[in-house]
Amino acid sequence: MTRPHRPLLVAVSGPDGAGKSSLVGRLAALLDERELTVVALHCYGCFLCRGFRVPPEAAGTGTGGGGGGWARRATDPKRRGSRLHRAHALLDAAELAARIAVAEGRARRRARGGESVVLTDRGPLDGLVKFDPPAHSAAAAVFRRIADRYGLTLLVETGPDTLRDRGWEEGAGPPALWWARYRNWSQRLPRLARIDGERSRSRVAGEALDRVLDAVRERQRLRHTTLRRRHVVVSIYDDAENPAYRGGGALVVGKVARRLAEDFRVTVVTAGRDGGSEERDGIRYVRLPVCRAGPRAGQLLFLTLLPFVARRIRHDLWLESFTPPFSTSFLPLTTGAPVIGVDQGRSAEALWRRYHIPFFLVERLGLRCYRHIVVMNAADGSEIRRRSPRADVQVIANGVDQRLLDESRLGGGQFILFLGRVDTWVKGLDLLLDAYESAQPPLELLIAGSGTPAEERRLAALVAAHAGGSKPRIHWVGYAEGDRKRQLLRDCAFLVVPSRHETFGLVALEGMAYGKPVLHFDLPALRWMRDGGDVTVPPFDVAAFGRRMNELATDAALRRRLGRRSGIAAQHYTWDEMTGRYLALAHRLLDTPAPARRPRRKRGASWQSTR
After folding, report:
1. Region 9-32: what's the mean pLDDT?
2. CA–CA distances in Å: residue 258 to residues 235, 317, 489, 496
3. Does residue 56 have a cis bond before it (omega within 30 degrees)?
4. pTM recorded for the entire structure
5. Whole domain around residue 262: which residue ranges?
6. Does 37 reside within a domain?
């Protein structure tokens, strides 16, 4: 079913006697002849103006307000008017907005996906002239917001003599005063066209018709331009503003989204405490309000809502960053568009070892639904090809901001650094503290990162238990980002990555870019660092980890050699190269020619000519 377009709102404005209502009727007939759906709305004044007679003493004030007993006091130095006058203005604006909304709904239902126009014989410009509020008042702001919804305002200009000939009532004030207000406010509103109302009514209607059809054509041109830019949606639970997560996945998605935005319209769907959307750097961000449920329940809610969101957001391609614990959301079953699964957080096997809950059964079943999957490393690529033989699996590593290698800093450093999300079991922080306590290296250990309140309490207890002596040598410095993060990477001697599970290890690559060695367990997912300045020990061998930690802390020459190799290896992982691979994959999936469709004539296709 064709989604109905928003109707084009057109206001015919001008003083009473300018022939607004008759022009609206003539325009409606002409537009209907061109097979455009038209709803004409006569909306002069609010129910107070229509239902109550203007008191004679108010009519003679010369304010030209037409607002009766609520007219603004001419002697008010702040030009605010009485409270009743301000309330009257807001009531007038609210009724105008409500009647417009109802008319738009009628037009959409009648148009059935075609072009539609809503004509009103009064617009926000008339309300501003009628009440003449201060430019920065609340009433003026409300009328201007309504004006932003209008696609076109036609101001019918007539001289004072013409208005008098057409029955202008002098009690409303001199026409010159009203035209001064119209000239003043018309300069503040967008999309306004002036029409010479002194000519014959047929010529006025012909010019107004041309202006309306030009506006319809322009809307159609902009809509077609927008549709030609296909829509790519990226979903990820992680978000840079989520204090309980803030992992490397949000950084990667941000880089990928900005690269995709060069050729496509891009929307990022992520989690938040409150729902809503915002536009930033040309990318639309939609936040699902799931974080108030807590980190674990929030992840499950996010996965549950994702298929429903995919049915509401029109898209040509969807990139889904897997979210633990179930990783996949079976998204390909709910959309006909291609879906690319991005394996940045598939950890069901690790969670099975920790909690003995078979999340991996759902993950394995879900992986079989995906025909396109991106992984960060070759080991995960081999595993997913085995689980889902029909999937097209691409290995696209993460990138890093490139910087010149500072030879003078190689081998230096004041401390050992762990940098990452605080998740004691997954990140192996308990193993790190045990290894540090057993080895007693000469350098202090800094732990930088944040996590859920429960994980932070667990880490605080572990640090307190291992901080023996009067002078603690283990310091948890909290979340680090921006300049603080760069300073930690620059001043550390080497990084430690004691994780029990990883998909890539973006922090390790960031440390390598600064020429720092990386000590880690020999996990298959981290073997992309092999011979790149890394130091490995058998998985989860705490004693061996402590010995290598002590060796690196005491041997500056070793750190210098390994650091130089790290810096050179990091230069092969540029964001431009890695995000370019995502862009190429999106084009490969979207640029495949679709089967030719027989064109279908739609309602509203014959309005192109005004003759």
Report:
1. 87
2. 14, 15, 25, 31
3. no
4. 0.60
5. 229-395
6. yes
